[in-house]
Specification:
Blueprint (H helix, E strand, L loop, with lengths): L1 H17 L5 H15 L4 H36 L1 H13 L4 H13 L4 H19 L3 H18 L4 H9 L4 H22 L28 H24 L6 H8 L2 H17 L6 H13 L2 H19 L2 H10 L5 H16 L2 H19 L3 H11 L9 H10 L3 H30 L1
Helix pairs in contact: 1-2, 2-3, 2-14, 3-6, 3-12, 3-13, 3-14, 4-6, 4-10, 5-6, 5-7, 6-7, 7-9, 7-20, 8-17, 8-18, 9-18, 9-20, 10-11, 10-12, 14-19, 15-16, 15-17, 16-17, 16-18, 16-20, 17-18, 18-20
Length: 438
């Protein structure tokens, strides 16, 4: 019965948004309240679950998305995105622009949390689209596939990091195996698959488009790359210092504070305010006006993400994730496939890769100990499962849809299928690695 309620909720959500033309945030709240009642949450607690889901989801990412949107708008308005696009295109040429985007996403995705990387790369994607008249999805999806793979497979991202710790895996080996898997998976789900998506009509948000700026008024290449990618540089530096100076009193607390994505984004924004804003001839008032403009297009995105968090919280509070995991635990399949399957189904039902990974860890820990399965590969198998078929209950789905301004149908066809290919390719690679290593 639980599975039927989940399926009905998801179908109702899709129907309200696509056929009913109801605002996605309103649709999420309606479906969340209905699902909570059907799943047996006490009447007096349903609204609390919805409010908690909205608050926790938005609260965890609002600073990242807002600061990222501000930085992205300034990068676009100052001409830094145009300069970066020009440099990349000069290096790779129009013919290999997808490769350039994939490599950029790969490098960015290693240290940077997915939401930060997403909002940071959007202006770069749209700048290339505007300058060279290339279909947005054809350019953007390969880069975002890199970010997604890094988020699901590799430490220091939340779920893989916790899995490594809980399974007593080797961080270095897990990272190495993850890189080996990531390359072919990204190529298949990114550049190869997007060849089938050139006909998707996408008119991205105008907030990230600017008219071409004359060459002499563009910021320098170093300033453009440095200011745009400063969040990556800062996070890499902090991560390295945490590794080199573990447990040093005072310094450890400072590094933990500085490693918070919201703090990283704020520091990067403050630096860019001067390197791209004030030094480019803008007054502080003009820079702040740019930041104010950047917020107009992301308000609805934040609301939709909050709505998806409400539905997720209702599912969590009703015990759906534990019920799914328990139902699958006794299946007679290879432990690696079992870990992937449990994570995949929780991901499809709840929409959160992190929750899917962490929930599966608790279920698979005794299985791992009894079976003697390689813990490093189990981390990757669960990570791959946690990326399976992102759809309407996943904030990432709505971020992609709203930023690229495409239909739900085309988002399913592009974003959801890309994530599915990443997941299937990931578990296939894990099983091949298992055969080679053992």
């Amino acid at each position: 019965m639980t599975f039927l309620i989940i399926l009905f909720s998801i179908l109702m959500l899709v129907g309200l948004v696509t056929w009913g033309k109801i605002n996605a945030f309103i649709a999420f709240i309606i479906v969340s309240l209905m699902a909570g009642l059907l799943l047996g949450i006490p009447l007096e607690s349903v609204a609390k679950s919805v409010s908690k889901g909205v608050g926790d989801t938005i609260g965890g990412i609002i600073c990242i998305i807002v600061f990222g949107a501000m930085l992205g708008k300034l990068v676009a308005e100052s001409g830094a995105a145009q300069r970066i696009a020009t440099v990349i295109m000069d290096l790779f040429g129009r013919k290999y622009v997808q490769a350039a985007m994939v490599i950029t996403g790969f490098v960015i995705g290693i240290p940077l949390f997915y939401n930060v990387g997403f909002v940071l790369m959007i202006p770069l994607i749209f700048s290339v689209v505007s300058k060279y008249k290339i279909p947005p999805v054809y350019i953007g999806l390969p880069m975002l596939s890199s970010l997604s793979v890094m988020h699901g497979f590799l430490p220091p991202h939340p779920s893989p990091t916790v899995l490594v710790t809980q399974f007593h895996a080797n961080m270095g080996l897990t990272f190495l195996y993850g890189i080996i898997l990531a390359v072919p998976v990204i190529i298949i789900a990114g550049p190869l698959y997007t060849r089938t998506l050139k006909n998707i009509v996408s008119v991205p948000l105008k907030s990230f488009y600017t008219d071409d700026i004359p060459e002499e008024r563009l910021p320098g290449a170093f300033n453009s790359f440095f200011s745009s990618l400063l969040p990556v540089v800062l996070l890499m530096a902090v991560t390295a210092l945490q590794f080199l100076l573990p447990g040093v009193k005072g310094i450890s607390s400072l590094l933990t504070f500085l490693s918070e994505p919201s703090v990283i984004m704020l520091l990067a924004l403050l630096v860019a305010t001067f390197t791209l804003g004030v030094s480019g001839g803008r007054s502080m008032k003009e820079v702040m006006a740019v930041y104010g403009e950047s917020l107009k297009d992301i308000i609805i995105i934040l609301l939709i993400i909050g709505g998806s968090g409400a539905l997720k919280q209702v599912f969590v509070d009703s015990g759906v994730n534990a019920e799914i995991a328990t139902a699958l635990r006794d299946l007679h399949v290879h432990p690696l496939i079992l870990g992937w399957l449990i994570a995949a189904l929780i991901r499809v039902c709840l929409g959160s890769a992190t929750i899917a990974g962490l929930t599966t860890a608790g279920i698979m820990l005794p299985v791992l100990a009894a079976s003697g399965t390689d813990p490093n590969l189990m981390v990757l198998a669960i990570g791959a499962g946690s990326l399976m078929f992102s759809h309407v209950n996943d904030p990432g789905f709505w971020m992609f849809k709203e930023y690229f301004n495409i239909s739900v149908k085309d988002t399913l066809r592009s974003w959801s299928m890309m994530e599915t290919l990443v997941s299937l390719g990931g578990i296939a690679g894990v099983m091949l690695l298992n055969m080679v290593i053992h």
